[in-house]
Design goal:
The chain is α/β, with parallel strands linked by helices. It has two domains: 166 residues, Aspartate Aminotransferase, domain 1, CATH 3.90.1150; 252 residues, Type I PLP-dependent aspartate aminotransferase-like (Major domain) (Aspartate Aminotransferase, domain 2, 3-Layer(aba) Sandwich), CATH 3.40.640. Strands 4-14-13-12-9-5-8 form a seven-stranded mixed sheet, sandwiched between helices. A four-stranded mixed sheet has the order 1-2-3-17. The longest helix has 22 residues. It is globular.
C-alpha cells in the first residue's frame, strides 16, 4: 500500500479505523496533525511543527520522549529477545522486585499490558478472595476499558440510578456495580452497610481526574473495609510513581489491599500491574488449580514482556534518583502558579486545577471537589483554551487533563505561559 503525505495517511486512517482514530481521542484539535517523533518534552508532527507536549502519551511518558536510559534499555533487550510468553524472565522479575521495594504494601505482583487490564484483574482477585460479587466505585471515576469500570451513575448521593457510559455493556452489570459520591463518607458508608454481605471491593482513584481525595474520606474507606472484610483497591494508574515513588498511598498515608498500576510504570511502553497483599495475590497461583479452590485466572500472553519490563526498570531507576520527582513537582507548581496569575491578571472566571504534577483549568469560580462540581465548569471555554494552546505551540489532549514530566524545565514553562496568555485572550 503506497501512502504519501500527511493527508494520505489521514485519509487511510479514515478508511481503516472507526471514526478515523485509534480510540476516543484525536491528536490535537485538528485533523491534519500526525505525530512522528519526540525528544524530551518536544513533539514533532508530520508537517515539521514542534510542540511543547503535555499529553505525555496519556501520562505514560513521565521522563519525556526518547529518554536515553529507556531507549538504551529497550535496545539492549531487543537484541536478546522481545518476548517469552508469560514465563519467568529476568527483566520481569527485576521490575517486580523494584515495585515491591518502592511500594511498601505490595508483596506480590502480576503484570498486565495496561492499567485497564490491571483494574480488571484486581477486581477479579478481590471477588475470588472474598467470594462476593459486587464492587463499589465513585461517581465520575475512570478505571479503564472494562464493563465493571465503565458503568457509571447519573445522580449524586444515591446508588439508585446507574447509567452505562458505553453501549455493549449488559444491563445485569448494574446489579454488580455500586456507585457512590466521591469524597462523601456518610453516603458511602450507608451504601456499604446495605450491601456489605455481597460487596467484594471498593475501588478508588485517590486523585480522580484532577482533584484529590479528602484524606479523612480515604481513612474512612479504610476503616469501612476493615470493618466488613472488603478489599480496598487503589487505582494508582495515574498516581503510581508520579505523585510519589510509593504512589498516592504514600502521599495520603493510607494503604490499600490491592493496587492497579500502569502509565509511568512502563515509561512509554505498554506495561500494567496488579499488586498487593500476599493472601489476596496468591489466588492467582495456578497451583490452586480450580475456581473451586479460589484460583483466579490472572495472566496474558504478553504479561511480563521483557521489552516493557526493561523500559519500566529504566524508568523507575531514573525516578528513584535523588531530587528527580521533587524537582518535577516544583516545576509543575511553578507552571500552575503562573497560570493562576494569568487568570487574575485577565480577570477570568476560572481556576487552576490538578493535584501534584497534573494541571488544567476549570472555567468556574466554584470549588472543584468531585465529579458533580467539575461538570459545572464551562467545558466549551476549556476546549477553546486547549485549542488555543495547540495553535500556539503547546500540545494538550483537547478536553483532557495535562501531565507534567521530568523533561519539562523552566524554559518550557515560560513558553507555555506565553502561549496560555494568548490562548486566554482568544476566548
Amino acid at each position: 500500500m503506497d501512502i504519501k503525505g500527511t493527508q494520505g495517511f489521514i485519509s487511510a486512517s479514515n478508511r481503516v479505523f472507526p471514526g478515523g482514530v485509534l480510540g476516543r481521542h484525536q491528536y490535537g484539535s485538528a485533523s491534519d496533525h500526525l505525530p512522528v517523533s519526540g525528544e524530551g518534552p518536544i513533539l514533532q508532527d508530520s508537517e515539521g511543527r514542534s510542540f511543547i507536549d503535555y499529553s505525555c502519551g496519556g501520562g505514560s511518558l513521565i521522563l519525556g520522549y526518547s529518554h536515553p536510559s529507556v531507549v538504551a534499555a529497550v535496545s539492549q533487550q531487543a537484541h536478546k529477545a522481545t518476548q517469552f510468553i508469560s514465563i519467568r524472565n529476568q527483566p520481569a522479575i527485576e521490575l517486580a522486585h523494584r515495585v515491591t521495594e518502592l511500594v511498601s504494601w505490595v508483596d506480590k505482583v502480576r503484570f498486565t499490558l495496561s492499567g485497564a487490564e490491571a483494574v480488571m484483574m484486581a477486581l477479579r482477585l478481590a471477588r475470588a478472595y472474598t467470594n462476593r460479587d459486587k464492587v463499589l466505585k465513585f461517581d465520575g471515576a475512570y478505571h479503564g476499558n472494562c464493563d465493571y469500570s465503565l458503568w457509571n451513575k447519573s445522580n449524586a448521593g444515591t446508588d439508585a440510578v446507574n447509567l452505562s457510559s458505553s453501549a455493549g455493556i449488559p444491563e445485569v452489570i448494574q446489579d454488580l456495580v455500586l456507585v457512590a459520591p466521591f469524597n462523601n463518607l456518610s453516603v458511602t458508608r450507608e451504601i456499604v452497610r446495605r450491601h456489605c454481605k455481597s460487596l467484594a471491593a471498593i475501588i478508588i482513584e485517590p486523585v480522580q481526574r484532577s482533584y484529590a481525595v479528602d484524606a479523612e474520606f480515604l481513612f474512612g474507606l479504610r476503616e469501612l473495609c476493615n470493618e466488613f472484610d472488603i478489599v480496598l483497591v487503589f487505582d494508582e494508574i495515574v498516581t503510581g510513581f508520579r505523585h510519589a515513588l510509593g504512589g498516592a498511598a504514600e502521599v495520603f498515608k493510607v494503604e490499600p489491599d490491592l493496587g492497579a498500576f500502569g502509565k509511568a510504570l512502563g515509561g512509554g511502553l505498554p506495561v500494567g500491574a496488579v499488586g498487593g497483599r500476599t493472601e489476596i495475590m496468591d489466588h492467582a497461583d495456578p497451583q490452586r488449580g480450580t475456581a473451586k479452590n479460589g484460583y483466579a485466572y490472572v495472566t496474558s500472553s504478553q504479561a511480563g514482556n521483557p521489552l516493557g519490563s526493561a523500559a519500566g526498570i529504566a524508568t523507575l531507576n531514573e525516578l528513584s534518583k535523588p531530587g528527580v520527582l521533587a524537582s518535577m513537582h516544583r516545576r509543575a507548581e511553578a507552571l500552575k502558579s503562573g497560570l493562576s496569575e494569568l487568570i487574575v491578571r485577565q480577570d477570568i472566571e476560572a481556576q487552576v486545577v490538578g493535584y501534584g504534577p497534573l494541571w488544567d483549568l476549570a472555567f468556574t469560580s466554584e470549588p472543584i471537589t468531585d465529579h458533580a462540581s467539575a461538570q459545572k465548569a464551562d467545558q466549551s471555554k476549556l476546549l477553546k483554551f486547549h485549542h488555543g494552546l495547540i495553535r500556539n505551540g503547546v500540545m494538550v489532549r483537547a478536553g483532557g487533563r495535562s501531565y507534567f514530566s521530568t523533561a519539562h524545565h523552566e524554559e518550557h514553562i515560560e513558553q507555555t505561559l506565553r502561549a496560555a496568555e494568548r490562548a486566554l485572550e482568544e476566548i
